[in-house]
Each structure stands twice: as structure tokens, then as C-alpha cells.
Write a structure and sequence with these properties.
The protein is mainly alpha-helical. It is about 80% helix and about 0% strand.
Length: about 170
């Protein structure tokens, strides 16, 4: 569990470092793309993973591998497609007041880093941990709370979307 926590912290700092100089416009588009791709990965990746499991003929013990791969596969392809679509639709970068762009741009980059890290924590908590493959019982209290706080932003997005669309209750979790 320590390695998962460290991986999430590394992901957060790496994504923050990659977006800090991008400006308000690019980071706002990235945030929108990550949220949309995360929702698509969550709701389309699970059926894709189950379908891949059935097609592979593997036993049910391997289900969480296929579901996690399905979620992250759909997420990665969606981020790529949405990124290309938004880049072609918005070829000209919108200009803001320079002081506003310098202040709010990194804050929006922080939000991008939080949502990407939250998506990673959400998928790790929802798939391998709930499948019983990884256990939170051997983790320290700070590691469990870090995982819970890390997954909270994306969990709230999924919960709001699922309630709004009257989706299956399995996506809502606790």
C-alpha cells in the first residue's frame, strides 16, 4: 500500500509539473478532457473489460485485470481523441489578461493534477481493492486516508453523473 501511495504522489507532482506553464486556456481544456475521458473510461471500460474476459476464456479470478485494463484503455484512447479534437477545434489559444493567466493558469493545472490523480486512485480503489486482490487492512491509517482523499474528487464526479443519469448503483460505491 505504501507503493500505491507513493505512486499517487508521484503522479500528482508529475502532472502538476507538466501543466504549470500551460496557461489557463490549455489547462481548462485538459481538465474538461480528463473528466470526460474518466467518465467514459469508468462507464464504458467495465463492460469492455468483462467482454474481453469472456473472449479470452480466462477464469473469473482474472476479471479485475481485464476490467482495470478496459477502464485505463478507454481512458487513454479517450484522452487522446478528445485532445486531438479539442486541438483541431481550438487551434488558436485564447488570450487572457497576462496577470490572470499567470495566476489562474497554475491553479487550473493544479486542478488537472488533482483530477488525474483522483481518477487513478478511484480506479485502484474500485477495481483491485474491491475485488479483494489488494487489502487495506495491512495499510497504515495515513495510507488509507490518503487513498480516500485522493479518490474523493473523481468519486464525486462519478456519483453526480451516475445520479443524474440514473445509472446502476454499483458505480456509486460507499
Amino acid at each position: 500500500m505504501l507503493y500505491i501511495t507513493l505512486m499517487l504522489l508521484f503522479l500528482f507532482f508529475a502532472s502538476m509539473a507538466m501543466t504549470v506553464n500551460e496557461g489557463l486556456w490549455n489547462n481548462a481544456i485538459k481538465l474538461f478532457n480528463i473528466i470526460l475521458a474518466g467518465l467514459l473510461g469508468t462507464f464504458a471500460g467495465i463492460p469492455l473489460g468483462v467482454w474481453l474476459l469472456e473472449k479470452s476464456g480466462k477464469p473469473g479470478e482474472f476479471a479485475w485485470y481485464f476490467i482495470l485494463a478496459g477502464i485505463w484503455g478507454v481512458f487513454a484512447i479517450s484522452v487522446l481523441v478528445f485532445g486531438l479534437a479539442t486541438k483541431s477545434a481550438s487551434g488558436i489559444r485564447m488570450r487572457f489578461i497576462p496577470l490572470l493567466d499567470k495566476i489562474v493558469g497554475p491553479l487550473m493545472g493544479l486542478m488537472v493534477a488533482v483530477m488525474l490523480t483522483s481518477f487513478a486512485a478511484y480506479t485502484l480503489e474500485r477495481v483491485p481493492i474491491q475485488a479483494g486482490e489488494w487489502s487495506l487492512s495491512d495499510a497504515s491509517e495515513w495510507q488509507v486516508s490518503t487513498l480516500e482523499y485522493a479518490r474523493a474528487p473523481f468519486h464525486n464526479v462519478v456519483k453526480s453523473f451516475a445520479l443524474g443519469e440514473k445509472a446502476d448503483k454499483q458505480f456509486l460505491g460507499k
